[in-house]
Amino acid sequence: MSDLTRQSAATLASAIARKEVSSEEVTRAHLDRISQVDERVRAFLHVDRESSIARAREVDQQLAKGELSSPLAGVPIALKDLLATKGVPTTCGSRILEGWRPPYNATIVDKLNAAGVVSLGKTNMDEFAMGSSTEHSGYGPTHNPWDLTRIPGGSGGGSAAAVASFESPMAIGTDTGGSIRQPAALTGTVGVKPTYGGVSRYGIVALASSLDQAGPCARDVMDTALLHAVIAGHDPRDSTSINEPVPDVVAAALKADVRGMKIGVIKELKGEGFQAGVLERFNQSLEILTELGAEVIEVSCPHFEYALGAYYLILPSEASSNLARFDGMRFGIREDDGKDRSVEEVMSATREKGFGAEVKRRIMLGTYALSSGYYDAYYGQAQRIRTLITRDFADAFSHVDVLVSPTAPTTAFKIGEKLDDPLAMYLNDIATIPVNLAGNCAMSLPIGRAPEDGLPVGLQIIAPPMADHLLYQVGSALESALADRWGGLLISEAPTL
Amino acid sequence: MGQGGIDAEQVKHLGKLARLELSSEEVEHYTLQLEQILGAITSISVVAADHIPPTSHPIPMENVYREDIAVRGLEIGDFASGAPSFEDDRFRVPRILGEPG
User: N or C: which end of chain A has fewer CB within 10 A?
Assistant: First the structure.
């Protein structure tokens, strides 16, 4: 098989299953690619070559004995660094957790292990998943493989960049306001935020518990479907896990048919603030969907304009509570000068040193929004807007099967461009945030390059809760129509590095 | 106090509540930024009428019960290795009461 790192996860898995190539060979090829390019991309925070190879050998042995029949057995993966991995460093992109090795695995990690998937390492991210560029990592930014002077999106920029630079065929991300979808859009890859409660949150370091959801990242729709099927499902260790059968996302990806479907274009998410080339590609995709037999109609979601404001009150409120656990007492670093300081002084010094600027900003914003006298005006109002946004979605889905919008308002911007302008940074997530507030599922897939800068553009497909299969059905139909035009996937046009 | 309605004293107080030992440069910087952010998002405070019920969570939240069966948890040693200071099976922490001696 020619260059193993250029193959899809599905192709690799079937070649491994047919014994044409071993998991060890596939894993070594990706580790070699990481050694070759990651000095420039910086997608990974932690790679342990020897243990990945040992694990791949173990999977090869299990396969030889016929003990594994998973559709992704032997395929390597990259894990966002906020998934707890037993004995393996887990920093969440923060200095406050430097050197910490969790004593247990996240449920997702256990499921991947049981499916014979081989971890290559942990990927870079904005600190505690707060950011849209991966520049807020305590360990330096990740670079976009399409143009190394640009950001790969965030917070899961490491996972997206690892996939886009062919360092890994697939990755796990988490999405609280767009952290899987926006990096997918900016790197020409596919990313899915499953329905809230569809994938276990056990062992995922919490940012905002009512918004966080883990999901798959890969280079094509089928690979994300295969990975989605492995990680989804009820988990008794997560009280918000939905106890219902997982929608058959793989069958839906195979179906790839939009004939007779109604697709709603969200009026509020295609005007002001969206780059011309992004809209051009988006409109072209709508024409293709119509040609494929879908009925494309415009729908209005009048409260979406308040989503960003509601989100930036709800998220910091939940985050300021969740991040109270990082106090230098039980895990991570402790800043103690040995001068008989009180526990409060040591906590304050530890948090001051261990947290970066964006995390501090959001902790203070959340502390403010939850303080007595402001609670009703801020947090209470934000929760009411959340209700209105959920109703907007329900109204829209009474007319259409899925909704679409551009995933992000612009293509990848330059590293440093918006770093100290939080409001400009927050606007990146304007199209993705409503989905998290309502708990729907959504996918971003590449739909071409913006004419003005040649950088990838993503289209977002949104479906109702527990209708994740519709994302894959529509996504794979559009993907294959685009691939026919381009003569392959968009990602094959990315620089080889 | 500007449009967002937050001043340096409040930011200092927030830092104290949130256990962040902010430098004076940080207080100045964050006052400006928090004021901008609050100014941009407070428009929402007039959108939703009181009769709209709040949503705290995207799915209905109910208590989850399980059988009361003892299962093996993590061992004490598992926690020791990740702690900044650990002694006699306990987390060792700075003094929690009184003034320095």
Answer: N
Helix or strand or coil: residue A148? coil
pTM above 0.90, yes or no: yes
Nearest Cα residue to A489 out of A188, A143, A264: A188
Contact assignment for A240 to B33 by CB distance below 8 Å: no
B48 to chain A: which residues are within 8 Å by CB?
381, 384-385, 387-388
Residues pairing with A299 in the sheet: A266
Residue with the bigger pLDDT between A47 and B3: it is A47
pLDDT at B1: 37
**Can you tell me which residue has the tokens 């409260």?**
A303
pLDDT value for B2: 39
User: What is the rounded distance in angstroms from the CA atom of residue A66 to the CA atom of residue B38?
Assistant: 59
A172 assigned to some structural domain: yes
DSSP secondary structure code for residue A185 in this structure: H
Is position A80 annotated as part of the catalytic site?
yes
Asked if the Cβ–Cβ distance from A385 to B48 is below 8 Å, we say yes
Selected catalytic residue, list A70, A155, A165, A241: A155
Predicted local distance difference test score (pLDDT) of residue A402: 98
How many C-beta atoms lie closer than 10 Å to residue B20's C-beta? Answer: 23
Give the DSSP H or E segment for A456: strand A456-463
| CATH number of the domain encompassing residue A453 | 3.90.1300.10
CATH of domain B8-46: 1.10.20
- pLDDT tens digits for A254-281? 999 999 999 999 999 998 899 999 999 9
* Cβ neighbours of B80 in A, within 8 Å: none
Ranges in chain A, pLDDT < 50 = none
Quote the CA–CA distance of A173 and A126 in Å, as a whole number. 12
**Is A155 annotated in the active site?**
yes
Chain length of chain B: 101
Non-local CB neighbours of A429 within 8 Å, separated by 6+ positions: A132, A177, A178, A182, A308, A311, A408
Residues of B with Cβ-Cβ distance to A388 under 8 angstroms? 47-48, 52
In chain A, the number of structural domains is: 1
> Could you tell me the residue ranges of all domains in chain B?
8-46
* Predicted complex ipTM: 0.92
**Which residue type is seen at B26?**
E
What residues make up the domain containing A399? 4-302+387-493
Q: Find out whether A409 and A460 touch, Cβ atoms under 8 Å.
A: no
